[in-house]
Structure formats: C-alpha cells, structure tokens
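lol forgot to send this yesterday, sorry. struct tokens for the thing we talked abt
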C-alpha cells in the first residue's frame, strides 16, 4: 500500500504530460472527423492520347480511331509534324501516341494481328492505352468471320461499350470505422509516450539513492518488489486505458458496442499491457530524468512512424514495412486495420487477430523477463 501511495503522489506531479498526450490525441481525432470523405470512388480518368491513322480508308481503322478518341482527351497537335508530336510527348501535353499502320483493317480481316506502334511519355497511362488497342483488335478478330463492314464495326462498338455496374454492399459504417481505426492507431503514441514517460519518471524517483537503499535493506524480495511496483503501475495504466476507451465511446458512440468496437478495445487493452512492460523495462535501464524525454521521442514517435500509425502501410516502402515487423506496434496496428474491414467474426477472420495478439503478449513477457534480469544485475553491483 505504501508503494502504491508513493506512485500516486509521483504520478500527480506528472499529470501535465498525460493531459498533453490526451489533448494531442483528441486534436488528431477531431481533424480526422472533420474530413468525412473517406469513401473511395472509382472514376475513369481519360488520358491525352494522340492517334495517327495511316489507314484512313478502312472502316475498322476508323472505328478504332473513334473508339480511342472517345476514351481520351482531345489534343490539338499537328500530326504531320513529327517534331511537334515529340515535343508534345516531352512536355507531357500528350500521354500516349498510337500509330495505326497501313493495311491495318485488311490484316484484321485476314486474321492477322497487326503491329501497332506506340510512343509514351512514360507515365501510368501506358498500360491503359495499350489495353484499349488490344481490346479492340481482339474483338475485331473474333467478329470478322460473322460480320462485315459497318455491321462489324457496329457489333464491336456494341460489345466494347457495355458498362458493367458493380455494387459492393456492406453493413459496416465504413466512415466511422475508418475514423476509429485512426484513433486507435494513434493510441500507440499516447500509450507508449504516456507509459514510458510516467513509468520511467516514477521508477527514477523510486530508485533515488536514499529510497533505493531503504528498499535493498528491507525484507522485500526483489522479484516481489518488482511485482508490487508492476501491479501498482498496471492500475495506473489501466486507468489511462479506461479514460481513452471512455473518450472513444463519446466520439464514436454506438460503434464501440459492435463487435468491431469490442475488438478495438480488446486489442488496445492487450497492447497497453505491452506498453506498460516496455515502460517498466526502460525505467529500469535509466534513472536519468533528463534523458527520459529523448527516450520517449525515440520509442513512441519512432515506432509510430515506422509501424503505420501516422502513415498507412500502403504508402511506405517495402523495406520499412519489413523493418516494422520487429516492433510490437506493428501487430497492434495490423489488428486495427483487420478489424476495420472485418464484417464476419468467424474463426478464419479472427485467426490472424489471435496470432498478432499472441505476438504482442510474447513481447510483454520478454520485457518482463529482461526487466527482472537487469534488476538483479544492478542489485548485485550495488
């Protein structure tokens, strides 16, 4: 009880930093909430394609030219001037140039696959432009045996312009889930910064010479003392976790009562225990209060940036994502991303969540073992 009261007194002096981390978390969440456009819509983007048709007299060639122009932006370039065409590509006024060769239509009717030449500005539209041509040629080769002249062109256009409408239905509130995922991802920073800073400062105070000597000569067994301190710190960290969960209910409401919301809370609870053990480990390594602020920045900010809390994994280089696997934060954030898209909580879907949680628990146990080992070594040295 004495240890617990002492920890609460020390924590009372550190409440300013906890309030600061909470305010930062709320500001980030509010900013995410104001940006409600979380739905990703697909719209066909038309590139600037220049068609140079050397087979003007043929209906198939003309049909291809019209088809490409209907799926691209019109470009005002003198096609008879090759230098002007090259300049347009260089300055990216044109994304792609397609050269329809002579006898293109006749080769199609004879069952040949004519060679179409291209010039590209080297951007993302290259594959799209080639796909348009290949699609048209394949259809023309299929229909040439069944239709002739204008009827052939009409059939190709009829088939090629069929629009497929795809509607994805989900019962998930994707907008709220996206905001909640960002909130829980950012909790990594709040948990780690709060735990490492507060626990390290508390332990630094408990390990001051006078206090440390009293503890050593007392009847307290080292492992028992560590367990008591760890338990007291757990109560403090649990209160911190509870505060952030209450905030999540205030911000996201009914979402937190769904299976997704419960999964977010369970995942964050497992992780805050890991953050506690990390803070306990670091607090036993250093008692330099001046260095703790720098350690907090390295541990909390570093892992947050590397493990997808601030920048989503899809925007990060592969080698950074691979490096992130060595941090427990990676598995916490991965679970949040899985929960966001999870509509059915069956064994197959929950299996990966369980694996990630198990890895986080293993990290927690490793930090506890390391802490006990370091504490014993330090006591022997003293």
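and heres what i got for the seq, position by position
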């Amino acid at each position: 009880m004495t240890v617990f009261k002492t920890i609460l007194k020390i924590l009372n002096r550190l409440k300013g930093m906890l309030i600061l981390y909470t305010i930062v978390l709320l500001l980030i969440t509010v900013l995410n909430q104001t940006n409600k456009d979380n739905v990703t819509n697909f719209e066909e983007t038309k590139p600037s394609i220049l068609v140079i048709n050397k087979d003007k007299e043929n209906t198939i060639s003309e049909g291809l030219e019209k088809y490409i122009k209907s799926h691209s932006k019109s470009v005002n370039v003198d096609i008879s001037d090759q230098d002007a065409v090259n300049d347009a590509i260089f300055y990216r006024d044109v994304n792609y140039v397609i050269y329809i060769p002579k006898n293109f239509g006749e080769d199609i009717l004879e069952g040949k696959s004519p060679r179409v030449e291209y010039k590209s500005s080297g951007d993302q539209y290259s594959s799209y432009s080639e796909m348009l041509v290949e699609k048209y040629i394949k259809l023309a080769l299929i229909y040439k045996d069944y239709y002739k002249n204008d009827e052939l062109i009409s059939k190709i256009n009829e088939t090629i312009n069929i629009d497929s409408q795809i509607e994805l239905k989900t019962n998930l509130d994707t907008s709220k889930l996206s905001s909640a995922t960002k909130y829980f991802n950012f909790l990594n920073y709040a948990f780690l910064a709060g735990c490492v800073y507060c626990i390290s400062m508390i332990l630094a105070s408990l390990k001051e010479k006078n206090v440390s000597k009293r503890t050593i000569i007392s009847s307290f067994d080292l492992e028992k003392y560590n367990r008591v301190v760890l338990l007291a710190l757990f109560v403090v960290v649990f209160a911190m976790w509870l505060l952030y969960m209450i905030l999540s209910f205030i911000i996201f409401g009914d979402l937190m009562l769904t299976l997704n919301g419960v999964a977010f809370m369970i995942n964050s609870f497992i992780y805050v225990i890991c953050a506690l053990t990390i803070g306990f480990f670091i607090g036993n390594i250093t008692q330099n209060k001046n260095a703790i602020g720098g350690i907090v920045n390295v541990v909390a900010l570093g892992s947050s940036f590397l493990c997808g809390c601030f920048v989503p994994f899809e925007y990060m280089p592969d080698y950074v994502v691979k490096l992130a696997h060595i941090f427990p934060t990676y598995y916490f954030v991965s679970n949040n991303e899985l929960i966001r898209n999870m509509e059915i909580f069956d064994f197959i879907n929950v299996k990966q969540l369980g694996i990630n949680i198990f890895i986080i628990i293993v990290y927690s146990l490793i930090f506890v073992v390391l802490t006990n080992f370091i504490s014993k070594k330090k006591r022997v040295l003293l």
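Residues 2-39+176-381 form one domain. anyway ping me if u want another try
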